[in-house]
Amino acid sequence: MDFSRLPGYLLSLFCFGYIGFISSCSNVDDTLFQKMEADYTQVHFKNTLTSSDSINILDFEYMFNGGGVGIGDINNDGLQDIYFTGNQVSGALYLNQGDFKFKDITKTANVETTGWTNGVSISDINQDGLMDIYISKGGPRNTSDAEMANLAFINQGDNTFKEMANSMGIADTGYSIQGLFFDYDQDGDEDLYVLTNALVSFNRNVSRPKQVDGQAASTDRLYRNNGDGTFSDVSQEAGITIEGFGLGAKICDINRDGLLDIYVSNDFMTNDILYINNGFPKSKPGEKQGAEGTVTFTDRISEYVRHQSFNGMGSNIADINNDGLEDIVVLDMMPQDNQRLKQTVGYFSYNKHHRDTDLGYVPQYIRNTLQLNNGNGSFSEIGQLSGIHSTDWSWSPLLADFDNDGTKDIFITNGYRRDVTNLDFIVYGQQASTFGTEEGIRRDRLSKLTVLPEVKLSNYIYRNNGDLTFTDTSKKWGITEPSYSNGAAYADLDNDGDLDLIVNNIDDEAFLLKNNLIDKNNIDEEMGSKSDSTHYLRVRLQGLSNPIGTEVFVHSNNYSQSDLFSPVSGYLSTMDNVLHFGLGNDTIIDSLSVVWPTGRRQLLKNLDTDRILDLEYKDAVNTTSKNLSAIDSIGVPTSPTLFTDITPKIKIDYTHEEDNFIDFTESPTLIHMNSKLGPGLTVGDINADGFEDVYIGGTKAKPGQFFVQDKNGTFTSKKLLQNTPQEDMGTLFLDVDADADLDLILINGGENPETKKEKYIDRIYRNDGYGNFTESTLLEREDSGSCVVAADYDKDGDLDLFIGGRYMPESYPLSPKSYLLRNDNGNFTNVTQTVFHNDAKLGMVTDALWTDFNNDSWIDLIVVGEYMAPKFFQNDQGVLRDISAETGLKNSSGWWNSIAAGDFDKDGDIDYVFGNWGLNSTYKASPEEPISIYAKDFDNNGSIDPLISCYREGEEQLIYARDVLADQISAMKSRFKTYEDYAKAPLKEMFLKEELENAYTLKAETLESSYVENLGNGKFKMSSLPLQAQFAPVFGMKVDDFNTDGNLDVLLTGNFYSTEALIGQYDAFIGLCLIGDGKGGFSPMSASESGLQIDGDAKGLVELQSASGAPILLAGQNSGPIMAYTYTANDTLEETVKIIPVASDIAYAIIHEKNKKTYRHEFAYGNGYLSQSSRKLRLHPEKTECIDLFSYTGQTKRIQLNNAK
């Protein structure tokens, strides 16, 4: 132990108590945390619950929701004291006497409670410098108002308290969960928000309109401090009127305007609420701001997040990635192990899910969520990528730096006394309700409850890896004892510089978990850190009676951190009121800035670490702005963004629409739809006026449209006259018949009942030279198509077509046929068998690219798809030979969506970027533990049954709930008569050997979107793109030098909304620009730097040139609007961009730079998912000497850049 780092008074206590202390801990040499024995600490609090005929989980559904923990220094002696709330036992107050010894002063302090107490808030309510205790109460049905009334224990300064809630006007008699004190109206005193739940007689999960009029029993309450020791209920006039079965709440400043907001996590189908503080109404000219009117709040949750947890439990808000922005964690009940998952999580109806969203609910899914703040008014939910999404029946998330490494870790409590979500129990209850008397049924169900399994689990603690991911270190850090844990708090109970944990348990004594980080350096090597990497700074806010909302920014050599003081966090609990910053190896704070809630601020520099720093409000100075983004902090960049939204300016007003066909009705075991995969986009000048136009792919519900550009750079819509509307997939402009105008090819895809007996018809629309098109049939197919790409593969002077087959209707995932069509003087001949030497059943193709990957001047083909390894076809003088096995890419099968090309490392050959499903998914894939799909007509009913498996805890398991599998294969319900039987059976025991042996089987071994480097000689190397590129499935991709630094960058769009209702939509992408370094490396731009917010179900992505010469990026979104962006050159570079148009037969260019380096650029017909961009080259004349253009047939042309137009 490093004795020099202990405060003096603790050193003396340590010397006398060391032997006793060691005996109070178990496994002292092994773990970060040790449970302190109650006989040593004298903390014997136990939240004991006893069921009876009158109080039980059937009649009182909140019986096992537990109690909270309150931390506060009630006697100002520098030691944090503890208050526990109890349900059927009195709450208890323990005075910290140092050295982890406590004294129960509950009776003498007059803080005993009766009735059912929930949350505890410790705050200086009356602003006398002493910490008071506010208790929120609830209780079973028919509990009297007197027993439901909340309590306010006001500190008398002598270790006693006086209960004064009624006289103060805050003895709320609703089903109160938690009180939060904060100064919402900035008048200098503490107001009160009461998180409220309710016992109701209706099913809380039945679809119904939201109740937003303030009349629901479960509407929260806001009490304004009148400044005279009393409070008034101002909920209605302040806009606190939305119902919600709240379990967690947090005071925050989400929009960084200096006004305190409220985040509420709600259970059941009621959405979480984000009450944004609007401040006082805007004053008229000449009036004093805020002189009249009331501060109001508006729920803006749907503007900030795209989905949330279904059963919102405890919640917390903090900066988890040190970017200066507040992130949000909400817990749910998703089990981690396969058996509990299948015994507790049943069928989720897609129809009900969409019925709820039609009623105005934000989509909700059963799992923990981590909402990453993008800094632009939006969040990306990355809980599955981060690895924290499934921690079973969870209650309290605590975000704090438990290992002092400079990043916030996550501690999660969980457990439940009886597993009332057990599906067999639920089914039994439904069946029993139809027989016998009401009282007999009730007693029978009560008896069944006694044999229900208990959900007694160990809590979780996740170490922050510093890269948006977390590692479960529960066992390693000593969090292993099973418990029914609810409320929890952290505090430095012994003032040694690390955070200890205090946990309130049902039917077990509370946990006091001592953190031995600093005084047990012998464990540091196991923790992956050195003995000098435990430095810290603790910040205490002094001189302002209500410092909630104060934000502190700490900058040291290796870290920039921020924290907003808001001690009520997690579930039913109040944290230590000292802000804690771990600093790792840093021993000096370069600068510390603080912004108080009044707007006053101060800056300190060159501070020593390993101490408590007292910040005095009187030392702060006034500032004219309370807007945190305007101060010197970690903050959001205020410089102009690289991309600018120009959607309204260019007048492309188009929203893609789909019909109401639902694939899951026909095949319940699908995990995503195949009918909603567009739109595609294609670019070209259709009317020969010199301006580029665009076609946007349509659907049967809404046909596609041209948008024709005029000389002002705006667009006018023009309908495509079609014989029959169809579902467009691939779209492509090219001159089919060599008449010097652009014709249009549309590939038919999607799935719809009307097409079951019809063939898919791909079409050619021939241009008359003026933008008028005549339809003819290109190809009739049995299967749904995907992409279309063109090149002169046989060097005969015209453009041939490759058409990808996407899937076989009602036979997913069997491979459809893909096609190669040779252009014979404007007519096309199917030469698939001749060129491929097979029927081209390549798999479920999503994208393809003609590219000369071996630089032999013969254009090759790369094909990617779902459950496919990328396929490389080398063009051997007009014959395509599959050399995939020779490329060096092993274990590369994935759920690939798209491919884009560029010479990213400037070595003269073309490299590639492949868009995959990403890592933000419950499904994980590796060569050792792949995702597999087994397809066969298992029940002999004439249709293919697709069954998907993944690995859980090292064993292959079907991913489905029992009801979903039974909907697909009805015999499974009789094979597994109970949910328990089904849950216990791994895949190998679900089917007979002969049932699986002839199944069509595919595997996915990687889900990471990747960069594929061309090593030459037909060899390639695959590496993962940055983690930000793994947030969601990648579809749209565009390669260009967006920041004009001379290196190729790549712009990505994606998401996937048409997914089954349990796992839900993939929506974390808002558009990502990866900045290339010219060596094959990429750095992600933040949203606040890029300016991108393409947050829908993005698919096609193209670039075209405006009439002014500026670039336009168009992003298509399934069932959403087209979005348009432009980008500008880095204004620090004294150069302009030259735009080089190329002829229709040009295949590629070699660019010669003035530094004598050369690189390659290809002009593909079709690049990126369902996309065709402008065939123009953007170059920097100050860096470029000349370019050589090469046609498909080998003709060359040199252009000196100074002569380029």
From TrEMBL:
Residues 548-613 form the ASPIC/UnbV domain. InterPro entries: Crtac1, FG-GAP, Integrin_alpha_N, UnbV_ASPIC. Keywords: Signal. This is ASPIC/UnbV domain-containing protein. The lineage of its organism: unclassified sequences, metagenomes, ecological metagenomes.
